[in-house]
Amino acid sequence: MRVKALIFDFGFTLFSFENPSIEKYFDCFNRGLLKSLDILKQEKIIEEKEIDNFIKIFNRKRNTFFKSSLKTKEEFPTTLLFKSALTALKERGYIIKVENVKEEFIENLAEIYHSCEEEEWKPYKETKSTLESLSKSSDLKIGLISNHPNHKTIKNVLKNNEMKQYFDAIVTSAKFGKRKPNPDIFFHTLKKMGLNKDAAKDCMMVGDEAADAVGAFRAGMQLILKEREYEFPFEREINLPNLIKIKSINEVLNYIK
Ligand SMILES: [Mg+2]
After folding, report:
1. d(Cα 57, Cα 60) in Å, to the nearest integer?
2. How far is the CA of 138 from the centre of ligand 1 (A)?
3. Distance 179 CA to ligand 1 centre (A)
4. Are residues 78 and 186 in the same domain?
5. Are 113 and 32 in contact (CB under 8 A)?
6. pTM here?
């Protein structure tokens, strides 16, 4: 078959988080939250004495959203998390100046919340040269699908590493609303690249986890599994027919005809 499109996952496929651990993720998000809180105080949206309550509500909602997203495969974007935490605080009678809160401001809060994580993502040493080589195949489309709650964060990482230009479509669950392995996010990405559902059989998904594998299978795409060097907790085993396994991202070049 002639491959019409190659769609990459983001985390641990093209980019890596050095020495990843649950603690490191949480530390990053907590630092980001403190930075967002500084802005909320600075803009006089919440007062110092309400900060602890805000953190409690925010963390509770973050956990609820996270669990629901795993169950429903729907994304709860970080912007929604900030909005609902602020609204909940107001509903409980705290003084919140929500009239000062504009959509753009919430987007900025979400970006700052993820800023520490944004700095941590580094491309694998073969990522850029692989994308560069692929981009030379004029009839090959290159896409990206990430299960991430903030679209801007993914775009920023690609931009900061001078890789955004290689992609015909950059899709996040934050913007689309549904997460991998829901096949709709795969079909949406194909559409953005000018391909229809029938083209799925001629497309390949490159990813590192079950959401990529199962989603690609449901959408009718071939999967290339990028094997990770770290094992993650609660990982599901991937057991699908015709699985291609690679250790380094540049091996995808062997499958493009
Ligand atoms: Mg991944």
Report:
1. 5
2. 26
3. 12
4. no
5. yes
6. 0.93
